[in-house]
Amino acid sequence: MNNNEQKLIDLIIAMESTEAIKLSAEMLAAGTGPLAILELCRSAMDIVGKKFEDGEFFVPELILAGDTLEQISALVKPLLAKAGEEGRQKHGKVLIGTVAGDLHDIGKNIVTFMLDVNGFEVKDIGIDVPIEAFLDAIREFQPQVVALSGFLTLAFDAMQETVAAIEAAGQRDPIKIMIGGGQVDETVRDYTGADAFGMNAMDAVRQCKEWLEVAD
Amino acid sequence: MNTNHNAELYNERSQRIEDAIALRETDRVPFVYFSTFWAARLQGLTIQDIMFDVDKYIDVSKQAMEMIQPDAYSSLLFAFGQTLEGLDFKPMRWPGHGTGANVTFQYLDQEFMSVDEYDEYLFDPTGFYLRKYLPRMAGAYGIFGQFPDFPATAEWDLIAAAGGFADPVFQAGMKHLFDVGEKTAYTLQQMGAYMQDMKDAGYPLIAGGFTKAPYDLFSDFLRGSKGCMMDMFKNRDKLLAGMAKARVLLTRNVEATTKQFGCRYVFMPLHWGLDGFMSPDQFKTFFWPELKNVINDLIERDLVPNILWEGDCSSRLEIIADIPPGKAIYWFERTDMVRAKEVLGDIVCLRGNVPTSLLNLGTADDVDAYCRNLIEKVGKGGGFILDGAIGITDEAKVENVMAMAESVKKYAS
Q: Would you call B357 and A60 a contact, using CB atoms and an 8 Å cutoff?
């Protein structure tokens, strides 16, 4: 790794967003390949994720680093001959969405980000997701894990109904279902029929790693 | 009940709450009633039914109060469906307007002030609100964008600016607002009558005024959560200056609006300062200083900040202990109440925190046991008010609410 490569990673981790974007543009102009830039960003995001897990970073750092990555990607993407994803091995597939009636997304977005940087292939189907949309996405995406998010207390019933519908559609096994969000606890997990609940994004990562037998 | 008896009850309940806030031991732990739409279910009504009809809302609320007989209650009735509709209010979805008939109102996390507009806000918040912010917040406030820019005029220009009021679009917009205003005034008038009825029935208020933490104002209603978090790194000084300005604006009318209800309690729900969202350093830099200023401003005006700390704030307890003792209420949602009692027991009255999952899904016995534990451990020595973690949830089982309300009469602290 040359000096600039290490510097780009360091700038992203130091939350020096403007400088990181500027350096990326300079490196691209000087001949560094677009895929190489993206890979450096990916390495930086792995470190950001690790620091979040360790309690050194919090949501503001995730948001800023995510925004930096987005802006660098916007510089790089037009230069890619084919928009092919780098062939990084994924641990497994997680389908995530906020259940019907609930419009909150920040918790879901943080979980999505953390699962992504931890090597899972995550499909986020948004907020206020009707049961049918979950069933369709399961058929199409074939996830090993379904993550139901909800901030409001009305989500308890929506989660329970979604789990029941997955079961009724014959899609429950071998899928693992986890729930998370503001009010969720063991009582809610039991009521909804989910396999696990999480209090934060790290719980979600830990649980997926355990289910999919991913070594730390 | 006769009037004298109700007046005695009113005084007794008021004193019990005041003693709890002053950290004095009370005859029993007080229990207060706060809910958004739970009462609707008592008459098989939907949230939409009562959100659009203040009289129905009051009717079910009175039924709830009669059943529960709390030591105090919140003045907040969210019967502003017609106002929201009339305003074409943008940051929210509500029953019939983006959510189902029985799905509560929800805010959308959006940016309403761009990063480039900090200077405008800091220089002239009223002008910024009129010309840019309010038209973004509500369709019906769009006409404020045409409001004459009076500070930019002098002498005859200022007089001639009155010609702007002849604009037919402006006039039509104002007429529409008069109509919205009348509907809203009716709602407020009925709420005032409800509060008088409750006072006559012996129930004091636990919330009259309303304000927010300056950070939450910026995150919820100006910059959006993403913008605000990015500003912590990229526009730190402007965010801090904006919040310092907002704090003055937030507290300048709160004394009048609170005391008009014959009440000293100001409700402040907090959204973004909880554990896990911000680091302790970010909390100490961006959230706590201006919130503490608001708290002190209110206390100096002889008001009682009644602060709902949403989520888990266990790591903040030592920091937020820095307020005058016996002058406020800290209502915790998921914070460990026993630890809160250890750290804050000599500082602030604690309120909470029967879990929403228990109220919605548990049994009355579960609720009773949970309340007993809270009363015995957190109520010990005074300075505790029993309530749900976020009040009584819309879906709470009636028998569980009753178990919570009755527990304070069964168990001694």
A: no
Q: Is A105 on the interface with B (CB under 8 A)?
A: yes
User: How are strands ordered across the β-sheet holding B205-207?
Assistant: B32-33, B72-74, B205-207
Cβ–Cβ gap A101/B279 under 8 Å: no
Residue B99's φ and ψ, nearest 5 degrees, are -130, 165
Residue B63: helix, strand or coil by DSSP?
helix
The answer to whether A126 faces chain B, any CB pair under 8 Å, is no
- Chain B: residue nearest A160 by CA? B361
Compute the radius of gyration of chain A from its Cα atoms. 19
Examine the pLDDT at A85 and tell me if it is beyond 90.
no
What was the ipTM of the complex prediction? Answer: 0.91
Blockwise average pLDDT, block size 10, chain B, 413 residues = 87 97 96 97 97 98 97 93 97 95 94 97 96 97 94 94 95 98 97 96 94 97 96 97 96 88 93 93 98 97 96 95 98 96 98 96 97 97 97 97 97 86
Residue A6 near chain B (CB below 8 Å): no
* Interface check A152 vs B, CB under 8 A: yes
Taking the whole predicted model, whether its pTM rises above 0.90 is answered as: yes
Shortest CA gap A18–chain B (Å): 9
The structure tokens listed for B38 are 């739970």
Q: Using a CB cutoff of 8 Å and minimum separation of 24, what contacts does A48-52 make?
A: A48/A12, A48/A13, A48/A117, A49/A113, A49/A114, A49/A117, A49/A118, A51/A13, A52/A114, A52/A201, A52/A202
